[in-house]
Amino acid sequence: MLPRIVDFLRDLEKNNDRIWFQENKERYETVRKAYLAIVQQLINRISLFDPDIAGLEAKDCVFRIYRDIRFSPNKLPYKNYFGAYMAPGGRKSLKSGYYFHLEPGNSLLSGGLWMPDPKLLKIIRKDIYSQLDEFVAILEEPSFKAIYPGLEGETLKRNPEGYPPSFPHDDIIRHKDFCVMAVKPDSFFSQKNWQDETVAAYEKLLPFNRFLNYTVEEYLGEA
């Protein structure tokens, strides 16, 4: 079913307008239902090693395909991808979790924190700095690094205020996002065992997510 979802998204990318979408609404509903079923399968399997997401429902994790164009120069009405964020509380969660992004030519498996609010970001940096060796060990663990080469996202040009101008791994502290990702070709999802490999890749994220969520839970008053 995944190749059919990718085919739909590829067609949507070529015909990103409301007339085409309405003419293909039934097709969209079919592939969306299939994507929801796949995400639910992933949730159920991830929850076996990360009980924090047990009981999540796919509908609470999958993002809308409709783009918010109010403040964007890009006025295309639809996203050309399906995305789901599997974390405690679903897609609006502040916690580190597991992201499943299906897009022709740019699909990815990802985890961590994307664009945390400024107050939380400061606390995350502080906790990473105070436990830098532990955090670096997670990132550099060979089987983790083989899947997720390094932190992604936006960075500062210099160290934030309050940190020494130079210290080992100061590039980590400069990050505004603390997430990692593995880009997958479309052919990956044609493999019979793609879901096994995906779940195995997500399992490698567990120490990374737990490190970040310790800070997030303190921030939210849950620790």
Instruction: Tell me the overall shape.
Output: globular
Q: Which runs of at least 5 residues are low in confidence (pLDDT < 50)? A: none
Based on secondary structure, the structural category is: alpha+beta
**Tally of alpha and pi helices:** 9
Spatially, the strands of the biggest sheet line up as: 1-2-3-4
Order of helices and strands: HHHEEEHHHHEHH
Overall pLDDT confidence: 95
Structurally, how many domains make up the residues? 1
Rounded to the nearest angstrom, the radius of gyration is 19 Å
Distance between the termini: 41 Å
Report the portion of residues in β strands.
5-15%
Number of strands: 4
Characterize the main sheet: 4 strands, antiparallel
Helix content: 40-55%
Notes on the structure:
The protein starts with a helix and ends with a helix. The chain has one domain. With about 220 residues, it is α+β, with helices and mostly antiparallel strands. Strands 1-2-3-4 form a four-stranded antiparallel β-sheet. The radius of gyration is 19 Å and the shape is globular. The chain has helices at about 1-15, 20-25, 25-45, 120-130, 130-140, 140-145, 170-175, 195-205, 205-220; strands spanning about 80-85, 95-100, 105-115, 180-185.
Task: Spell out the key features of this protein.
single chain, alpha+beta, 11% strand
Q: What's the topology here?
A:
Layout: H1 2-14, H2 18-23, H3 25-46, E1 82-86, E2 97-102, E3 107-113, H4 118-130, H5 132-140, H6 142-147, H7 170-173, E4 178-184, H8 194-203, H9 206-219
Summarize the structure.
The protein has 223 residues and is α+β, with helices and mostly antiparallel strands. The protein has nine helices and four strands; from the N terminus they run H-H-H-E-E-E-H-H-H-H-E-H-H.
